[in-house]
Amino acid sequence: MVSFLLLFLINQGEFSISPLYFDIKAPAGARRKVIINVVNETYTERIKILVQRADVIENYEGVYKPVELGKGAPSCANWLKFKDSIIELGPQSGKEIEVFVEIPTGIKGGRYGALTFTTQPTKEEMKYKTKIPVYFEVTIQPEIKPRISIEDIKIVEDIKKIPRFMFYNLKDAIAVLVSVKNEGDIHAKIKGNLILRDKRGRKIKEIPLGAGRGVVLPNTTVEIASIIKRLEPGEYTVDAIVRYGTLNPAKASANFTITKKKIEKKEMLLGGTILLSVKPEFVEMPTPPGAFRIKTILLENEEDSEIRVKAEIKELINDLEGELYSPDTFGYQYSAINFIQLEEKEFVLKPKERKTIKLKFNIPKEENSGGRYASLILNASKEGSPLPITYQIPIFINFIGKAKEEIKVEKIEVTGKAPVNFYIYLENLGDIHLKPKGTISINQRLITGAGEQVIKIGEYELKELKGYLLPKGKVKMFAEGPSRLKSGRYFIKVIINYGKDKELIFEKEFNL
């Protein structure tokens, strides 16, 4: 769960709420409890707050807004149960609000809602009301898959015409805006990349696309952006790739020309959707050294037209969130691409046809420890779809009985005060993939007349990785700390659990 905290300064005082987002996964019929912390930050004034349910919409910039019940995304607002609709807080006091999320039976997909906290000044005070929403994203298990498509790519020369960038002082820069639509029944967590190519198709650079939480609600279109330095006059192609946790990322491509006076978009190619079933979606194979193995992948064309498929084996690595992807580069030390042969690399599937493709594994005898990694890439296209749709199937080869499990903390970043956010950077020093989990405990040391005193602030869980930490790979794990910390001297203790009952302890002092 990713959470953010906003502080509101209002006439009758300052109050804070944490967290502002809950990401809940549970089966239909389940009941879950969460805690919302509300704190009156003033030293002299008492405040009264009204708590109400609301629905949620998401605007084009990816920002949530509370709306009246019945006017938002598929709603869970009426599932949110709490005791008191009025909260009164004295100066420098706080309260934990218990909220129960009661999910009905017979439900699937995603549901969304909010609780709004609104100040209630008296008529005599003549003060403005301030409303703070806390958002709930509920995923019903078993999860269904989102469906993401790219609708448009825009190249904008005058960045100040874009509202979110109008106050940025950006010179010699252009914006690439990509419109992304969620056509599914559940929210999608997206992560994008832009690849710039020259007129010959050669790659110039690859940059991240978009920022923030990257969540798109069902039946919602958002616009994600990247700012790049203005290119020299010439003809270019920009490829937009948006990953959202499925085998096939959304893709689109646009050709544009830059002159000294203007930027002109010439043509755009959209990937669309292709109904191709791929099973399994993940291949994991224990093996001894020197073994020969065959694995099969079952494809089914669910379209009413032919699908042309091109298959290849590529390398597999992880990004900082632990998400697995296939880079354009080669030379990964723990690659398995030289061990795998494809029986067929190009074929056509007739409407409703099923086909099995074989992966042949020839494992060298000298390879005998840890894991080796690759991915099967399937590029599928059909008539009327100008861009192929790419499916990625990760392949893990695990050598039986021998592996080096070792991890280290590279660094810790501490940002903010309300709340305090912790970023733990880990590196896998072993030769096998890992899925680390962990906690952070925080203590404050105070110097008093009686000597040094240690005060325990709390213990917080690290957010789970999306995928895996591969050998020699690095990840950034996140934990949201307390809703507010005062300036002072603190000590944190990080405990990372990984592999087969292994534990790493790392301690650090920091000052706020």
UniProtKB/TrEMBL annotation:
<protein>
    <recommendedName>
        <fullName>DUF916 domain-containing protein</fullName>
    </recommendedName>
</protein>
